[in-house]
Amino acid sequence: xxxxxxxxxxxxxxxxxxxxxxxxxxxxxxxxxxxxxxxxxxxxxxxxxxxxxxxxxxxxxxxxxxxxxxxxxxxxxxxxxxxxxxxxxxxxxxxxxxxxxxxxxxxxxxxxxxxxxxxxxxxxxxxxxxxxxxxxxxxxxxxxxxxxxxxxxxxxxxxxxxxxxxxxxxxxxxxxxxxxxxxxxxxxxxxxxxxxxxxxxxxxxxxxxxxxxxxxxxxxxxxxxxxxxxxxxxxxxxxxxxxxxxxxxxxxxxxxxxxxxxxxxxxxxxxxxxxxxxxxxxxxxxxxxxxxxxxxxxxxxxxxxxxxxxxxxxxxxxxxxxxxxxxxxxxxxxxxxxxxxxxxxxxxxxxxxxxxxxxxxxxxxxxxxxxxxxxxxxxxxxxxxxx
Length: 387
Fold this sequence. Notes:
Elements lengths: L1 E2 L9 E5 H15 L3 E5 L1 H5 L3 H11 L3 E4 L2 H9 L6 E3 L9 H5 L3 E4 L2 H14 L4 E7 L7 E2 L3 H10 L4 E6 L10 H20 L6 E3 L3 H6 L7 E4 L22 E13 L17 E6 L16 E4 L2 E10 L2 E7 L8 E8 L2 E3 L1 H7 L4 H7 L5 E5 L12
Parallel strand pairs: 2-19, 3-4, 3-11, 4-5, 5-6, 6-7, 7-8, 7-9, 9-10
Antiparallel strand pairs: 1-12, 2-12, 12-13, 12-17, 13-16, 14-15, 14-17, 15-16, 17-18
């Protein structure tokens, strides 16, 4: 057994490749052109860092940004972001004047929110800009499609609400969703057409999520909302190969102890996992303190020297365990929990599927105390060497 004083090793860290973020954004923009991009940076940029990521996406050409709360919108304004910002979720009960003072747009995802924004705008004497959402079949949030005609007529009669966007969420995650997606597209087009007949012609029309933006070239609207794909994570295996994306976050831990493990013996304890062959076990200085899901132990793989090996246990707040087989690891070597190492990548959707989570949840769960290191590489030159 070989061990090392843990204080001599850095804690786990999340490396954020801002150059990869920029390249992903440019590829997505080229894919969806002439549509614009609403870059979703909510929940602290899906855990990647709100302000650094938004600045990169701003320079890359995003037309607007989606945040999770007025607080995030204000943080971006204070950081110098001047483009439109849509508060997508947590705004009810927050000071409505913030929307006016900081030029934020509100997502009206229910009829209650539509009426609330109309009332507040009337009281304040200035209109809060809104994107009105309709549920066209996903069944999550939005004014139900069956109520769209009545709702649109009422909206057209409102004198204080400023509608700058109409949108829905396309429930598309791969070819298996194509038929349902086509029905949603048809429903959404009817809503947009009826709105136009009533004089509601907002600046932005958007339906596509990350998967649909990558897969469906004729999706309606003049904007797409892209979240997890920007961060180099395909929403599912079905769309992984549609567009070359680079993982932006690499979650890394370092080996702090190694141990020889005999076939049939347990590691790190007999009741955790039993070695199928003679080999080497390693303790990694990263555990559930950073909110890496403990439930992934015994299910997930990690990367060691660019190869996959099993994550056999997460015992403590700062320790997890892997089996490297015949390769003898060295104290201080890096282990990647997700992201790229060498030519191999562990994608979030792989891990999320093991615990019935959504891919973006894994990065948003990460502790704010986890060290995040921001790296930015210049864009590569054009393949033809031109300018």
